[in-house]
Amino acid sequence: AEAAVGAEATAAAEAAPPERYAAAVAAAAAAPPTTPAGQAATAADRQPANASAVAANASAVAANASAAAVGAAGEGAGVAGEAAEGPLQLLVSPPEVLRAAFGWRKLSHAASDKGDGVWSLLRKGVDPRSEGELTEWSPNLYSPSLRRRLEADCGPVCAGAVSDSSIASDGTQKLLLRLEDGLAVECVLIPMVGGKTTSLCISSQVGCSRGCTFCSTGTMGLLRNLRAEEILAQVWLALRTIRQRRLPPLVNVVFMGMGEPLNNLDEVRRAVELLVHPKAFALSARCVCVSTVGPSPAHIRRAAEALPCRLAWSVHAADDALRKTLVPTTRHSMGELRDAFLASLATKPARLRGLVVELALLEGVNDSPAHAEQRRDQTLDGRSARSKSRTRRRTRSSWP
User: Fold this and answer.
1) Fewest CB atoms within 10 A around its CB: which of 95, 101, 332, 368?
2) Which residues pair with 165 in a beta bridge?
3) Phi, psi (5° rounding) for residue 287?
4) Which contacts of 234-237 are long-range, i.e. CB under 8 A and separated by 24 or more positions?
């Protein structure tokens, strides 16, 4: 039975994009709420990549064959396109880039520095190209010539728009972001317990090639990678929503939405660098976390070297046979991946060396005490660790 599940998931990951999406939409529509597909269609607090994203992308694929052709499944597929010559993209242009592009002088007083001033607005989810928002939020910065320059030389702040939104009873909010080519991704705003901070879960790809059998994104396959400005558009829209809902400030950003970040490392790196840039989004590097299943030891080494943030490892199971069932595209043993993480993290600054270990707990599949002991032994391999467990109950899955 496990081999059949793995083979079915692998076949789904390798199917042509239109077929994947048509099958996923049909499954989500027909499945009862007790199945993973049914949960994706019915549960407001499920992980990103639910039926709304699947359906939105199915429509886009049907309407845009050229976009679908980009998404061949597998390692290295869906490489983000080179940035075309055109308007300046504000979300990937830190203050020093804006000053160079517009010939602005760097001023010691941040309130008078135009580059810093534009980013002080972007960090609030404000559009500096909008005359109304610019005058409301930064009257000292506003001038007709500045607004005209930004409007003429810069593209729209957000590479897409929110096409759907839902708020769960605990305040968690999903945003469905429709991209310029009609495809869609989701991000999730999570007001943290205690009411002092907000976390944001963002996507790095449209779909995913890893084929995890418990994840609704895994049924979609990989359509394409997100560009850095599309990744950061999720953050900017979240900041805008936080301001409008008067939520606590955004402190944590985690790459735990749609996609495998390490299969889109260059664009994820660009986005992370802007997130932790002290004059851009200005988040602490310890509060930005990239989650990965660990496609290979080489991917892990490159990520640890390239990303100025923390890493998280989605383990799911310590037993290699069970891991292969849950993540059928995995090619490396638990020990190989663990050793790659530990060796690579040792080269990072001390504050970024901690490794978050995650799993999707599936009733009757990987939730026994024996499974927990095996994960502990395989993950630690004799090393010490601090344990902090955070769980959220999900609707019962269809796993036997």
Assistant:
1) 368
2) 175
3) -105, 5
4) 234/175, 234/177, 234/185, 234/187, 234/200, 234/202, 234/203, 235/187, 235/200, 235/202, 235/275, 235/281, 236/91, 236/122, 236/125, 236/157, 236/158, 237/125, 237/158, 237/162, 237/175, 237/177, 237/187
d(CA 226, CA 223): 10
Indicate whether 192 and 340 sit together in one domain: yes
Q: Are residues 34 and 100 in the same domain?
A: no
For the entire predicted model, the pTM comes to: 0.78
Residue 241's pLDDT is 96
The CATH code of the domain that includes 302 is: 3.20.20.70
* Least confident piece of the model among 7-11, 165-169, 218-222, 351-355: 7-11
Print the domain residue range for 179: 2-74+159-380
Same domain as 358, residue 341: yes
> Is the residue at 338 inside a domain?
yes
Q: Do the Cβ atoms of 334 and 318 come closer than 8 Å?
A: yes
Cα angle: 28, vertex 218, 30; to 5 degrees: 10
- Distance (Å, whole) CA 358 – CA 310: 13
Residues 308 and 346 in one domain: yes
Q: What is the pLDDT of residue 49?
A: 45
Q: Are residues 50 and 119 in the same domain?
A: no
What is the residue whose two structure tokens read 């467990």? 389
When divided into structural domains, the chain yields a total of 2
Share of the chain above pLDDT 70, in %: 72
Given this model, what pLDDT does residue 247 score?
Answer: 95
Which residue shows structure tokens 């310890």? Answer: 286
Is it the case that residue 119 has pLDDT exceeding 70?
A: yes
Is 393 inside a domain boundary? no
**How much is the pLDDT for 12?**
39
* Domain stop point among 108, 132, 153: 153
Q: Tens digit of pLDDT for each residue in 325-380? A: 999 999 999 999 999 999 999 999 999 998 989 888 899 999 999 998 888 888 77
Do 19 and 109 sit in the same domain of this protein?
Answer: no
Three-state DSSP at 310 gives strand
Shared domain check, 373 and 308: yes
